[in-house]
Amino acid sequence: MMSAGCSGRRADDEDDRKGHAARIAWFVVHGWDDPLGVDVGVPSMGCRPAWLVVNGNHRWVAAVHRGGRTVRAEADGAVDKIEKLMDPPELWGDDFPR
User: Fold this and answer.
1) What is the pLDDT of residue 13?
2) What is the pTM (predicted TM-score) of this model?
3) Across the 98 residues of the chain, what is the mean pLDDT of every consecutive 10-residue run?
């Protein structure tokens, strides 16, 4: 185990940050085909995920760095909540229930 030292951070934290940055940079340069996985939960049943993106955080940040205004995603959860988050509706895929 690495020592926290005076900074309060462990030496392997820096390796983690570099690893995340490298993965994001790879996606910025090479792109990707997989959609992000998003879970909006079911608020009416008290199910509220702590973090919206459940698969694809590195791709999401890469999309921001590439200047993208949209990103393809597959969403789970309450349809009414998904509808509120998706704007404009023209972006919805053909298989989205209407």
Assistant:
1) 82
2) 0.70
3) 48 84 96 94 92 93 89 90 73 56
Which of left, alpha, beta for 8 (phi over 0: left; psi -120 to 50: alpha)?
A: left
Q: How far is CA 50 from CA 14, 38, 45, 47, in A?
A: 25, 12, 15, 10
The pLDDT score that the predictor gives to residue 70 is: 81
19: left (phi over 0), alpha (psi -120 to 50) or beta: alpha
The size of the chain, in residues, is: 98
Q: Which residue type is seen at 35?
A: P
Contact criterion met (CB below 8 Å) for 41 and 49: yes
Q: Is the dihedral of CA 95, 86, 28, 68 positive or negative?
A: positive
